[in-house]
Amino acid sequence: MSETTLSPEVVAFLNEGTRTGMLGWTGKDGRPLVAPVWFLAEDGVLVFNTGAGTAKGRALVRDPRVVLSADLAAPPYAFVQVQGIAEISDDPDELLRIATALGGRYMGADRAEEFGRRNGVPGELVVRIRPTKVIASLDATA
Length: 142
Hints:
Helix 3 (92-107) crosses helix 4 (112-119). Strands 1, 2, 3, 4, 5, 6, 7 and 8 form an eight-stranded antiparallel beta sheet that branches. This protein has helices spanning 8-14, 55-62, 92-107, 112-119; strands spanning 2-3, 21-26, 32-37, 40-42, 45-51, 65-72, 78-89, 124-137. It has a single domain, classed as Roll (Pnp Oxidase, Chain A), CATH 2.30.110.10. Helix content is 27%, strand content 41%. The protein starts with a strand and ends in a 5-residue tail after the last strand. By secondary structure, it is an alpha+beta fold. Keywords: Oxidoreductase. Pfam families: PNPOx_N. This is Pyridoxamine 5'-phosphate oxidase.
């Protein structure tokens, strides 16, 4: 299925467990690049943190067109691809909130604040991907 919004089924798939997203962007020289990111689907967007000085951070400021893909690598095999536009913020309160939420998802509730304090600091960015196209196959065996 192809959409322009994150359906409830897609959000449930994306937020299940500790599924890692593979973020794709265009390098300064035009090369396609990809890297894993911790992310959340919330309020109709995908959100993650990255350093302002990283290749991702610099590239998203230069060209906000991105794609994030997440999959289920076991039966029934599934994937979601979200193409979109990255919106960047360095708001300290939002940075701490997102870093803490990501820490809780990926490292467990008992370590959420630790990761929030570690990753919700100046020099980090909050990145929100506003979907322009969502492609999903939530059961490739059907």
